[in-house]
Design goal:
The chain has 315 residues and is of the alpha/beta class. 33% of the residues lie in helices and 27% in strands. The chain contains ten helices and 14 strands.
Length: 315
């Protein structure tokens, strides 16, 4: 087991939340708020047990969902929510065959000394997904821990990573942000590209997303990023650049109006705020350059208004 922990108390009994927590949406926030409240009330270490890779990638790789965030984003977000420890459990074929009761006994009881276990209402675990909140409660009676099952929905809308993915695939950033409780943020290293943007007067940072990363639908977006503590407007292209190529891989290219530094080998967190338009092929290069200029101007205005409204706090 890969252990990443941030401990504020001496090791003793724990309040534990379990799950993948991909994207850290509002449902996850409800679980973590319950976790930290129970930990404070009983003087326990708050601990999140999460899994990497995503269990579905091992169990059914052809149906495995794309991820909303990197593992580092997940761990950072959990710690920012006040969790004392984050335990990353490596999920492999052996782990997938482990029964729910053995998982509870070996990890939660013997290793982590659980006193409270907090899970979302739809949580499943163990071989063939046999584990459930009800089974956890039964095992809790045997091993002396209590179980909190948390509702993860807002009104009639269930907060889920699946719903965020579906919203991003539609290009519906408002729906994605509503479930996430903040702007969708893509993290990736800046890599060298073919300098097409620089040649036409709009240099871009090429953000290399993981092959398993969920991207918004192909199109042009307005957003923001931060470089060395300074926020910048970001005109973002998610697409194949049809003006230059018949077909190509989907690229994420980010233009920062007014920025002139070197971003190569750095890592960017790119916030997506608004879907501007579809990707399109233009009759002339001049027409393309004109449209990009309009996109950049619109992005700068959106950034100006958002900054005035302190929307950056959503990031």
């Amino acid at each position: 087991m890969d252990e990443r922990q941030h401990t504020r108390h001496a090791p003793h009994r724990r309040a534990i939340a379990i799950g993948v927590f991909d994207g850290l949406h509002r449902g996850h926030a409800e679980v973590i708020q319950r976790l930290t409240a129970r930990a404070r009330a009983h003087n326990l270490v708050s601990c999140v047990v999460t899994f990497d890779p995503h269990p579905a990638l091992v169990l059914a790789p052809e149906r495995a969902p794309r991820l909303l965030a990197t593992l580092d984003q997940r761990v950072e977000g959990l710690r920012a929510w006040g969790v004392d420890e984050v335990r990353v459990v490596h999920f492999d074929a052996s782990r997938s065959r482990q029964s729910a009761s053995d998982f509870v006994r070996e990890l939660l009881v013997e290793e982590l000394a659980a006193q409270v276990v907090v899970v979302g209402e739809n949580f499943r675990f163990g071989h063939d997904r046999e584990g459930s909140p009800a089974l956890l409660a039964t095992l809790g009676e045997r091993y002396d821990f209590t179980v909190d099952e948390v509702t993860i929905r807002g009104g009639q809308v269930q907060w889920s990573s699946t719903a965020v993915r579906e919203a991003l695939e539609r290009g519906d950033l408002d729906a994605a942000s509503e479930i996430l409780g903040r702007s969708f943020t893509l993290r990736g290293p800046v890599v060298h590209g073919d300098a097409r943007g620089r040649e036409i007067g709009f240099p871009t940072a090429n953000v290399a997303a993981s092959p398993r990363q969920q991207l918004p639908r192909v199109g042009i977006y307005a957003g923001a990023t931060v470089v060395q503590g300074v926020w910048w407007p970001a005109a973002i292209s998610v697409g194949r650049r049809p003006h230059f190529y018949e077909q190509g891989a989907v690229l994420v290219e980010v233009h920062l109006p007014g920025f002139s530094g070197d971003l190569y080998d750095s890592t960017l967190d790119v916030l997506f705020w608004r879907y501007l338009r579809d990707e399109a092929r233009y009759d002339t290069l001049e027409a393309l350059i004109h449209q990009i200029g309009l996109d950049v101007a619109e992005t700068q205005e959106i950034f100006r208004v958002a900054t005035a409204q302190q929307r950056l706090l959503l990031g």
